[in-house]
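Lab meeting prep.
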Amino acid sequence: MSMTVTPAAPRAGFLARRRRSYRLFIAPALVVIGAVIVFPWLFTLWMSVFDWKIGSAAHFVGLENYETLLVNRRFIEAVVHTFYFTALAVVVPLLLGTAAAMIFHREFPFRGVLRGVFIMPMMATPVAVALVWTMMFHPQQGVLNYLLSLVGLPPSLWVYSPTLVIPSLVMVEVWHWTPLVMLIVLGGLAALPTEPYESARLDGATEWQLFRFITLPLVAPFLVVAAVIRTIDALKTFDTIYVITGGGPGTASETINLYLYLQAFAFYNIGTASAVVVVFFVIVLALALLLLHVREKTKWS
């Protein structure tokens, strides 16, 4: 008795048509990614190996732009300023945001109203915030020096002092973005289980011990997320610094972003500016990989 075998060709043809339809669906996304991400990066890499100023012909110089940056004192100072600003603008909001989250996690009268007031700064645009703080930093007419005089302290130069300019700019970042850290940590606190706290209190644990050995380890993944967000935001900060100081006094607050802006749009050194972009990308990529590694280590088991 012979058996009839159904050919598999129609099924294979159907799968082939399905694969072609999938390619048609993803084609627009690939085109957009290529036009918006891949091509600009390739063009930036291409420009970084040329000595090119707007209005003149481009000359191939190889890695000379990168070699110049490595010995350029102003660029090295800009890198140091960027790391200094980023470190303060990440650590201080993390500490204050965690403390604020611990306070607002407790029950007390008007907690909702005060929480709403606390998060209002992050709703303002960076330029508006910078303009307000520029007036507050004024040595003679600023409100900050007036507040110092009320407690008997001498006036400060704030952003007009080379040694105080970056800490002063960090004050603006702290005021602006500490509420964001507070919201992230507050969400983590709301998701914590209550059983470990009840057991620890039965064993006589103090409030500090509860925070140190239970709250902090459990909320660590949320702190890492907040640190990643703040690090990315602090590294790319431009508008606040540009509006308040423009990189001054002198170059005391000039970060990589401001140095890049001046090279591209003030001095028209497109080749040098492109090399700065590539170096900055490498720095950001290295920090991102480090933070992702830390985030993997702080995941709950």
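Slide two material, second protein:
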Amino acid sequence: MGDMAYVITDACTKDNLCVEACPVDCIHPKTDEAGYEAAPTLAIHPDECIDCGACVPVCPTSAIFALDDLPADKAEWAEKNAAYYA
């Protein structure tokens, strides 16, 4: 698995603004996808993300971090994002 560029953490409210901002459609689940209601947060696909950062400024809860900037207390979210696509 490649290095994950961006990670969505537990502050995510699934408002889907990041989904709309993403130019490569790598953030799931979408509202019409199976598992959307059950998913605690959206997740960024680690191999499809192009590291553009478009999702970061549109997030109203500041839930999205560059992997290098991920706070230590949010570290498990990198694994949780990756696990969603495993």
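Talking points for slide two:
The chain has a mean pLDDT of 93.
Residues 8 and 32 are 19 Å apart (CA to CA).
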